[in-house]
């Protein structure tokens, strides 16, 4: 399981991408996911720093930086 912050976890097998929320296409993706009830907000009211795209068109918002999530996903050396 991948800790995405604040005690929230996702299955790494379902993870397709970890992206920054700053670009316009990603913002549109978030809006569409919210409209279709495919959005999970795991930020606990904090600023969104990473958008996780899961299979099944599920979008997860995280307050952790993408680099932090990738480091947690990678096995230790």
Written account of the structure:
With 77 residues, the protein is of the alpha+beta class. It has one domain. Helices cover 26% and strands 32% of the residues. The protein has helices spanning 24-35, 66-73; strands spanning 2-5, 8-10, 15-19, 39-41, 50-54, 58-62. The strands form 2 sheets. Strands 3-5-6-4 form a 4-stranded mixed sheet, sandwiched between helices. It has a two-stranded antiparallel sheet with strand order 1-2. The mean pLDDT is 96.
Task: Give the tags.
RemA-like; globular; alpha+beta; Putative regulatory protein tsl2331; 6 strands; 77 residues; four-stranded mixed beta sheet
Question: Topology of this structure?
Answer:
Blueprint: E1 2-5, E2 8-10, E3 15-19, H1 24-35, E4 39-41, E5 50-54, E6 58-62, H2 66-73
Parallel strand pairs: 4-6
Antiparallel strand pairs: 1-2, 3-5, 5-6
Protein name: Putative regulatory protein tsl2331
Family: Belongs to the RemA family.
Pfam family, one: RemA-like
Q: What is the succession of H and E elements?
A: EEEHEEEH
Percent of residues in beta strands: 25-35%
**Using only CA atoms, what is the Rg?**
12 Å
The proportion of residues forming helix, as a percent range, comes to: 25-40%
Helix/strand/pairing category = alpha+beta
Q: How many domains is the backbone divided into? A: 1
- How does the major sheet shape up? 4 strands, mixed
The overall pLDDT average reads 96
